[in-house]
Specification:
It comes from Maritimibacter harenae. InterPro entries: MPAB, MPAB/Lcp_cat_dom. It holds the Pfam family MPAB_Lcp_cat. The chain is mainly α. The chain has one domain (17-273). It has 13 helices and no strands. The chain has helices at residues 17-28, 30-44, 48-57, 59-62, 64-81, 86-99, 106-127, 134-150, 160-174, 179-194, 202-210, 215-221, 228-247. The longest helix is centred in the middle third of the chain and has 22 residues, at 106-127. Residues 278-282 have low confidence and may be disordered.
Amino acid sequence: MTITQDSGLGRDPDTEYEAIARWLGAIEFAWDIERALEFALFRTYAVPSISGLLARTGKFETEPRKRYDDTELLLSEPMEHGLDSPRGREAVDRINAIHGRFRISNDDMLYVLSTFVCEPVRWCARHGKRPFTPEEIRAWTNYYRALGERMGIAGSPRDYEGFDRLNREYEERHFRFARSNKRIADASLDLLLGFYLPRPLFRLGHPVALSLMDEPLLAAMGYEPPRPAVRRAVLRAMKLRAAILRRLPRRKTPRLITARKRPTYPGGYVISQLGNGPARAD
């Protein structure tokens, strides 16, 4: 599916939401949305029922990179190729098969879906070169409503405001510290820092990452808040980055997550094998 510099412009967010969402994620806010979705998943680990399930499977701590890659690829296949494309349908079927092995409440599934809707919008408003437009917010929301339907998630709100309200109310009720939260958060944070820093520098990177987190999230993870001076420096750096991006030419070629080479799958991957046993190359 071709994605061009202008492929998300001038489209109807109620009928062409897939094209708009694909353009937002692959061209307009490629780096920002990927980071925002990482933080979206990270937020879900502050819910003990979710972190406890991940801790019981053991995969997150023993194979963190594989689990990260599998999750990112399964979510990116329908986004980049189309929800009803052969690859998109296969990825959604695979997600449903994996979730079907466990007893996961609809409320937890709906909350996770709400983080995918809300966190990219919030991230770009705080740290991006510009906020989403109202039309982009509607398209982004419609895309994840459609994904949620295909995953059998009941009760999705009809608009972004509904998802935002659901998200905030759920976190207020369910964010609380548990040892499983910190175990999964520590493994996740080390993995994400490893994309940018050698392990000996992780100690320096932790305060930077924590500066991008709010107080309820930090408390639920058992993390001490970073020093105010560190938080201010990090947020100033993000504002400087946004100012620089506003002055640079717009991206012309898509940044496709599914096309990226990964050490987990050096020979490529098969959708039906994602989330299932050791990494396999084809």
